[in-house]
Structure formats: structure tokens, C-alpha cells
Amino acid sequence: MKKLIVLLAAALLVQCVNTKEELGDCPVLTAPQISYSVHVYPIVAKTCALPQCHTSDFEHGNFTRYEDLKKKADNGKLRFMIETHNMPHSFTDGPWYLTTCEIETIKKWIAEGAKNN
């Protein structure tokens, strides 16, 4: 039981540390328009569209396809998931979480109409 509590506390601490970056460190937010192919897809490819997660035949969407991500953007689920950090750990050697900059980039893309550009 103690191990579980320690693990949960550590996970919460890591999440808090990883979301404290300053938005001044996010130059993409000053771009006139957020591009799906240049700004959004690279974020999704490294944290979401992994073989064990949002790829073909995944019940919650194939994020290797623009159409599936757009559907989640349009119905509000994508924004909800990234704002609440309600995403499971992925099976990657890299970061599984989204930085504040990445979250704000995706939110801006959604606000601009989630275009396939």
C-alpha cells in the first residue's frame, strides 16, 4: 500500500513539474496561424499516435489520420483531454505528457478551426 501511495505521489509531482513552463518559451504561439502539419502533427506523433495508442483500429481514434483528430477537436474531446491531463502514460521511451506549450499550441489550432494545413 505504501508503494502505491509513493508511486501516485511521484506521478503527481512529475505532472506538476512538467506543466510549469512559461509560455514565453513557446514561440509558436506568436505564429499568425497554427499549422496542422508543421505544429500539431509533430506533437501528436511523438506523444499520441504511437503503435500502442492512437493508431489504426484504436477505439478512441487513429491520430495518424487528420480526420480522426479533427473529429475529436470538433466535439470538444481533444481539448478536454489535454486541458485535464486525462491521458494515460504511453508506451514510449520519450515524454508521454504534453508540455504547456504543446497544450496551448493544440488549443490555438482548435480555436482557429482545426484546419488541415
Brief summary:
The protein is an all-alpha fold and 117 residues long.
What does this structure look like?
The protein is mainly alpha-helical and 117 residues long. It has one domain (2-111). Helices cover 49% and strands 0% of the residues. Helix 2 (36-47) packs across helix 5 (100-111). Residues 4-20 have low confidence and may be disordered.
List keywords for this structure.
single chain; 117 residues; mainly alpha; 5 helices
The parts where pLDDT drops under 50 for at least 5 residues are: 4-20
What is the total tally of β strands? 0
Provide a count of the helices: 5
Major sheet description: none
Structural class by SSE content: mainly alpha
Oligomer: single chain
Approximately how much beta-strand content do the residues carry?
A: under 5%
The secondary-structure element order is HHHHH
- Computed Rg: 15 Å
* Mean of all residue-level pLDDT scores: 75
Q: What is the helix content?
A: 40-55%
Euclidean distance between termini CA atoms: 49 Å
- Which descriptor suits the 3D outline? globular
Query: How many structural domains?
Result: 1
